[in-house]
Amino acid sequence: MPIRQKLMLIVMATTTVALVLAGISILFADFFLFRGYLKNDLSALSRIIADNTTAPIEFDDPGAAAETLGTLRARPHVITACVFRNDGRLFAQYRRAHATAACPAPRSAEDIRFGGGFLTVSHPIVFKSKQIGTFVLVYDLGEIVERVELYGATVVSVFVLATLVAVLLSSRLRLLIATPIVELARVTTRVSQQRDYSIRARKFSGDELGTLVDAFNEMLAGIQSRDSELRKALLAREAALDDAQNARASLEATLENVARLNVELRMSNESLARSNEDLERFAFIASHDLQEPLRMISIYSQLLVRRFAHSIDPQAVSFVDNIEAGTKRMRELLADLLAYAEIGARNEDVSEPVDLNLVVEKVRQNLALAIAESGATISVAPLPLIRGFESHFTPLFQNLISNAIKYRSQQTPKIDITTGGTNGYIRICVADNGIGIPPQYYSKIFVAFKRLHGQRIPGTGIGLAICQRVVERYGGRIWVESEVGSGSNFIFTLPVGLIVR
Ligand code: ADP
To answer: Which of 22-31, 279-288, 373-382 has the lowest average pLDDT?
Structure first.
């Protein structure tokens, strides 16, 4: 049932109940009030008539008494009225037209009672303070019924009229309440069906319903803002999810690439190692096997000069000398190449503690001539005992020290060998006061056959390559720090794990 009809029903029910109750109350009140009134009225009337009948009784004039009783004609509901003598004989009687009823004998001198649809009144007739008779009056209660009917009709017509007015009034007034509620219901339905939180309910009044509409609108605003935030968050989440998926995809692709590159790297590493081995074997064999024919060339060219000294042309002698010098240089090159190849080769011997102090001492003896010639001074800090091969460390120190002497400046060579330590490595530095090296050649000089000072100073260009090979073979690193004109520091590191003492 819509709220308009409910309101109407409430109004009508309230009005009806109120009217019916009021009507019934009025009817009851009147019924009882009128009975009281009737009692008083009839007892007063009885007294007056009783007083007026004393003389007729005293003078025994029933006609006069009947005349007095006849005035009761003015009261149509009086059915009958009688005057009794004291001895109970009827003295005079009045009867309403067409009435046949007889007067009841008085029960007592003074009495008034309702019964059998009548009101019966008895009143004593007194003369000089002595009762001389009794007046009795019978009144029909039809008047009460008439009154009830009259009032009932009035109540019913008032009821009908009031209901009509109530219907008219309430149909206008209920709109005051129903309209805002219907509007709220309409908006609620629209919001829930369309999920559109931007709709707002119209406010009709400043009362509680207005407050309700305000609160409802506020709630909608709250939901709207939360809804939009939620939407935004959802979009952001979806975007993040997309990003994550993209990132995952690209990560997977990268991982695949890395795996592929790894495989390729391993393959090329393996082939590199193979070709390295081949190359080393070749270098070793070549440098080793070439020594023999070289020696033959040298021996036979010397034999040639010695055997045919008297007959040979002096120019031929100088040619032979050149051959001699060439073979000597070639021998040196081959020896260095062989040394270089040997460091890379697998060493079947078991490694042993190598005292680097002794190594430097041995190098000093090897280079005794050069040291004496140049007047070089060599200071050596205490060096450690290293697990390895002496055949590796001797060329390492010998190359560094001989270079320090070879590439000296005008000053007398001064070589300092010092040690230090950095996380996990021992650091050994061979410092000189030689000609120095420009920075752009710092790494180039470690490449085999790369020489900086050309023909001016003899050399094969393999020395530093051998040094690098040795150091890297033991897991260390070698580099140079230098200043042209002041000297060079050749620094190499070795893992502390190699140190025996
Ligand atoms: P080599 O000494 O036989 O030329 P190295 O490999 O020992 O070959 O040295 C390579 C180059 O590095 C040398 O030709 C030289 O120019 C430069 N060099 C090496 N040691 C020093 C040094 N102590 N002072 C200056 N230059 C150096």
So the answer is: 279-288
Q: Which pairs count as long-range contacts for 357-362, CB under 8 Å and 24+ apart, including other chains?
A: 357/382, 357/383, 359/383, 359/390, 359/393, 359/394, 359/397, 360/397, 360/401, 360/417, 362/394
Helices (H) and strands (E) in the chain, counts: 10, 12
- pLDDT for 346-373, tens place per residue? 666 778 999 999 999 999 999 999 999 9
The minimum-distance atom of ligand 1 relative to the CA of 453 is 16
- What's the confidence (pLDDT) of residue 347? 65
Indicate if ligand 1 lies below 6 Å from the C-beta of 468. Answer: no
Geometric angle at alpha carbon 323, from 317 and 326, rounded to 5°: 145
Tens-place pLDDT, residues 311-348: 878 888 888 888 888 888 888 888 888 888 888 776 66
- Name the closest-CA residue to atom 20, ligand 1: 403
Question: Above 70 in pLDDT, residue 149?
Answer: yes
Please tell me what DSSP assigns to residue 499: B
488 alpha carbon – ligand 1 mean position (Å): 10
Kindly state the average pLDDT of the residues 143-165: 88
Q: What mean pLDDT value characterizes the chain? A: 90
Structural domains of the chain, with CATH = 3-147 (3.30.450.20), 179-343 (no CATH), 353-498 (3.30.565.10)
User: What is the number of the ligand 1 atom nearest to the C-alpha of 454?
Assistant: 14
CA of 451 to the centre of ligand 1 (A): 6
Pocket flag, ligand 1, residue 376 (CB < 6 Å): no
The alpha-helical segments, DSSP class H, found in 120-207 are: 142-194
- The verdict on the CB of residue 413 being under 6 Å from ligand 1 is no
Q: Which atom of ligand 1 is nearest to the CA of 487?
A: 24
Per-residue pLDDT tens over the stretch 408-424: 999 999 999 999 987 89
With a 6 Å cutoff on the Cβ, whether 432 touches ligand 1 is yes
CA distance 217 to 200: 6
Atom 14 in ligand 1: residue holding the nearest Cα: 451
Q: What is the pLDDT of residues 107-124, one digit of tens each?
A: 888 899 988 889 999 999
Ligand 1 contact via 407 beta carbon (within 6 Å): yes
